[in-house]
Design brief:
The complex is a heterodimer of chains A (about 325) and B (about 525). Chain A has about 325 residues and is mainly α. Chain A contains 13 helices and no strands. The longest helix of chain B is centred in the first third of the chain and has 20 residues. Classes of the chains: A mainly alpha (about 325), B alpha+beta (about 525). At the A-B interface, helix 2, helix 3, helix 8 and helix 12 of A face helix 5, helix 6 and helix 13 of B.
């Protein structure tokens, strides 16, 4: 187990190094830089002033030097300054991380809490009206773009309740946070919950036909015990894998949801930073997201052991 | 001239006293909440050319002179004193002296003096090395010869030539007085002004907060405790948020005429104004690259444009049709309908113009079977893209087959600068409805905003002549002729003049917008909330 963990951690370092090189190079390949964007807002370009900005920001240095300067800074906890706000990157990113983390966490909780039970019900009640209704629901969740769903929710709230559930200032308590983020989280988590629902259903249907389930039933165990203790535990393995993958995909959904619900989180900020070619901001944000994704994947792999004790990584 | 200007100064003082005297039923308190469309590139008005910076930060500053807040049209007669108490021209109109208000303090407590005025215009006119990253309106101040501080409360601008528009340019939202003692870098992130509102906070992509300046030099003002701009990038969300009552108004000019109708249908009590946004859709033709180095092909291209179709399709007929100058009745200097009909390509019979265009192209060997093929470059954002698609459709009528080339904003101006395009569809704004601003900013040989590098020295002489002309009607006549020549030469053919909507709830009182500029009425020291 320890050997496995060490191997995975080393692999994480290699992955993160690869991500750092890729994002650094990709940003430089994209046409235009911050100087172009700054002049874009002024509707003109003064070549000498542009050159001055490029030199001031060190963008005229050789690429390896720029990369080393950034990496060295990251390793020493210095993330540099935003080209746009001219403030330390850490001061811009830090307040936004908890916002996105809360939204993503709530969305995942929603996706799991809605997806797993409904998937089980759908499987147990296979080919009944309830099953059909739940399948329609899950299909609409998969086919509905989250920005469209978000806008529909906003329109409904304004028309019927005269209010709009968007962010406009930081809530005072954790409960106020949850109340404010609940609707956006449901909006972004709906797609994930639909996927989890479908996967749980098909996985459960397969498990329910296995010999050990029949044996359990013949032993006289109640339906609930067979379904939730024996079958569900075995059906969860592919679902857990999906949850891990969905966490990464969630970032994409969050960009849209944060924009529609005007939530000042990391995801929306990243898109703006890319638009501005704010290299220090983008590089550090992408690295942060990469760390989150590889960590979640590691946790998911470790969770397999808990769910299925037969899995032993050291073997 | 000087007598006229003195009369104007007196009229301005009267207008100011009337304006302040009208303050009776105003209520103190409350925070005005405004939706903002995007993240301002910085907080420094002198470094930017966008309403995204101008509107939220104008309340932090004061000008020497300003357009009277309740003036319906921004023009010389509407100029009133602000940090200046009065002004006087010398007999030859080449010297303009301002007496300054005593006792005014910057938000950091330091006193405002004539040195600040000199320092500001020395920097923006390029006379001193400035720490500003950009200086987009340097061409506005071409006529400044020298600025002399007579004493701490008096400053004199020495001009090369008489220039009636000089006061107009000083009155716009883009002409605040900056403090000498605050570095340019700080002005981009934490601006210090003398205005009615103090800067509190600018959170990137989130919000801008201003609070009441208790030491404001206008007694009892501002009425508001503060202003909050929430940056809502999604336009649909912003409109819904406004309709829900979460916000008091939207950033100016951001709503399309159709959206304004929708808002008023949902909330009938909402006050809305659709007005020219001082932006125009125009064609950039690269006259240095074949085949557009041939004036005939440029002319044929211009003759293919059906301006009414642009207006009808893009705005259901709301957008104005005109030349470089904003069309009347909102605009002061735009062509009359009768004059416009004499300009090639502006006549009512579009088919006749296109027939002429086809003849030109046929004489050069092009036909429906063998069209001229080119790329139409534009920024990859809807306002630009939609117009470019229409242009491509119109060009087919004169045997020109276009292919859309959408470009990222980051490369758009870089491509223009390198002249790496054949035909471009551009949307561009100007801060003030004034010929000096329009011509010197966009059409002089040395201007950085002259994207096509159109350079006509004879016309530039006329730019200066109109700039010095004192009689309004005589100057207007000259401006019309210059504008006509610009369109005939295909310098940057104007396709449409855009309009945009601003909406606010009825409890927002004291808000006055001018019909010919969206940039100049955001001091907001007269606005109050009647909740």
């Amino acid at each position: 187990m320890l050997t496995y963990l060490i191997r995975r951690l080393l692999l994480m370092i290699v992955t993160l190094f690869g991500v750092s090189v890729a994002i650094f190079l990709l940003l430089r390949i994209v046409p235009g830089n911050i100087a172009d964007i700054l002049f874009d807002s002024a509707g003109m370009i003064d070549p000498s002033e542009k050159q001055k900005i490029i030199a001031d920001l060190g963008l005229d240095l050789p690429l390896p030097l720029q990369y080393w300067s950034w990496l060295n800074g990251v390793l020493h906890g210095e993330l540099g300054f935003s080209y746009v706000s001219e403030k330390p990157v850490i001061d811009e990113i830090l307040p936004r991380i908890p916002i996105t983390a809360r939204l993503a966490g709530l969305a995942l909780v929603f996706a799991i809490c809605a997806g797993v039970p409904l998937g089980v019900i759908s499987a147990v009640k296979q080919n009944t009206k309830l099953d059909y209704a739940l399948r329609v629901l899950s299909l609409s969740g998969l086919s509905m773009p989250s920005f469209w769903l978000g806008l529909l929710i906003l329109m409904a709230c304004v028309r019927w309740f005269g209010t709009i559930p968007i962010y406009d200032r930081a809530p005072a308590s954790i409960w106020a946070w949850i109340a404010m983020l609940a609707i956006p989280a449901a909006s972004v988590g709906f797609r994930s919950s639909a996927l989890i629902m479908r996967l749980t259903r098909s996985s459960m249907l397969e498990i329910l036909r296995q010999d050990f389930v029949r044996t359990a039933k013949s032993k006289g165990l109640s339906d609930n015990a067979v379904t939730y203790v024996h079958a569900l535990r075995n059906a969860l393995l592919p679902v857990i894998t999906t949850i891990g993958v969905e966490t990464a995909f969630l970032m994409g959904g969050l960009i849209v949801t944060e924009t529609v619900f005007n939530i000042p989180g990391v995801a929306r900020f990243l898109v703006e930073a890319i638009r501005w070619r704010d290299y220090p901001m983008v590089q550090n944000l992408v690295m942060f997201i990469a760390v989150v994704v590889v960590t979640v994947n590691l946790i998911v792999d470790l969770l397999y052991m808990l769910v299925d004790p037969r899995i032993r990584y050291s073997e | 001239m000087s007598r006229l200007l003195r009369r104007l100064a007196v009229a301005g003082v009267c207008a100011l006293s009337l304006w302040t005297g009208a303050a009776q039923a105003q209520k103190q308190g409350g925070v005005l909440r405004i939706t903002h469309r995007d993240n301002p590139p910085s907080a420094s008005i002198h470094e930017e050319a966008t309403i995204s910076t101008d509107m939220p930060f104008m309340g932090v500053f004061n000008n020497l002179v300003v357009f009277a807040p309740d003036a319906k049209q921004n023009r010389l007669e509407a100029v009133v004193p602000e940090l200046a108490t009065s002004w006087a021209y010398s007999d030859d109109d080449r010297t303009l002296t301002f007496k300054l208000r005593d006792g005014v303090k910057w938000h950091d407590g330091k006193p405002f003096t004539a040195e600040d005025v000199k320092c500001t215009w020395d920097a923006v006119s390029g006379k001193t090395e400035s720490k500003m990253r950009k200086n987009p309106r340097k061409t506005w101040w071409f006529n400044i010869k020298d600025i002399v501080v007579d004493n701490p409360l008096q400053v004199t601008f020495h001009l090369n030539d008489p220039q009636p528009s000089f006061l107009v340019m000083l009155s716009g939202g883009f002409s605040p007085v900056y403090p000498c003692h605050v570095p340019a870098a700080q002005m981009r992130t934490h601006p210090i002004g003398t205005g009615p509102f103090k800067f509190v906070e600018f959170k990137q992509n989130e919000s801008i907060r201003l609070e009441r300046n208790p030491d404001y030099w206008k007694p009892g003002k501002p009425y508001l405790d503060g202003i909050e701009y929430s940056i809502i990038a999604n336009r649909s969300t912003a409109v819904l948020a406004l309709e829900s009552g979460k916000f008091d108004m939207n950033i100016t000019g951001e709503l399309t005429p159709e959206l304004v109708k929708d808002v008023q249908k949902e909330v009938p009590s909402m006050q809305c104004l659709v007005q020219p946004s001082n932006t125009q859709g125009n064609l950039l033709i690269n006259r240095d690259r074949p085949p557009f180095d041939d004036a005939k092909i440029r002319r044929a291209l211009v003759l293919s444009i059906d301006r009414k179709a642009f207006s009808d399709i893009l705005s259901r007929g709301v957008y104005n049709i005109g030349g470089a100058m904003l069309a009347p009745p909102e605009g002061l200097w735009g062509w009359s309908k009768e004059f416009m009909a004499t300009v090639p390509g502006y006549g009512a019979d579009v088919e006749k113009s296109r027939e002429e265009g086809r003849k030109i192209m046929a004489s050069l060997g092009y036909s429906a079977e063998k069209p001229l093929q080119l790329k139409v470059s534009t920024r990859n954002i809807p306002d630009y893209r939609d117009a470019a698609v229409l242009l491509i459709d119109h060009m087919k009528n004169v045997y020109i087959q276009g292919e859309l080339e959408p470009l990222d904003s980051a490369v758009w101006y870089a491509r223009l600068l390198k002249k790496d395009y054949s035909v471009g569809m551009n949307v561009q704004g100007t801060g003030i409805d004034d010929p000096d601003v329009m011509f010197f900013e966009n059409y002089t040989c040395a201007s950085e905003r002259n994207y096509t590098a159109y350079c006509n020295k004879d016309l530039e002489t006329l730019f200066r002549k109109q700039s010095q002309t004192r009689d309004f009607e005589a100057r207007k006549k000259l401006v019309w002729e210059i504008d006509k020549t610009l369109q005939e030469d295909g310098a940057r053919p104007i396709v449409y003049q855009a309009q945009g909507g601003t909406c606010w709830w009825p409890h927002v009182k004291g808000l006055h917008l001018a019909v010919n500029s969206i940039y100049n009425h955001w001091r907001l020291d007269d606005v109050w909330l009647e909740r």
